């Protein structure tokens, strides 16, 4: 069950997602919290960095690891605006993150219950407590608007190219 603190930190993650969007990236934001303090922040940067691992969660995990001087992030909570993909879910398991709170469900690649459930798979050496759907409408709307605008831009570019060829 989500708490007022969950909503507060998801609001912060949404601000990071908007930062990603301002840089032309898919608007996903993430932060890692330890004892009520944000110790890691991230936003998607795969496109600009030409890096398949440039996901918001990975950035937040890396920053938190440097902060704690340990890759094991025990007793932490990861807040992310979109359900993690298999890579990010695997990284949270490996890092021993205690809890995952995410906003929008990802019916295509979600690995915290939608398509896969790596975060709670008992065959792995660690499982997370997972809370999905926190600020779901706002997180989903941000992503939907981004992709709607992207499709419009692609369509306009194709139309311009076609008109220039005529």
UniProtKB/TrEMBL annotation:
Pfam families: dCMP_cyt_deam_1. This is tRNA-specific adenosine deaminase. Its EC number is 3.5.4.33. It catalyses: adenosine(34) in tRNA + H2O + H(+) = inosine(34) in tRNA + NH4(+). Belongs to the cytidine and deoxycytidylate deaminase family. The active site is at 57 (proton donor). One of its GO terms (molecular function) is tRNA-specific adenosine-34 deaminase activity. Catalyzes the deamination of adenosine to inosine at the wobble position 34 of tRNA(Arg2). It comes from the Bacteria. The gene is tadA.
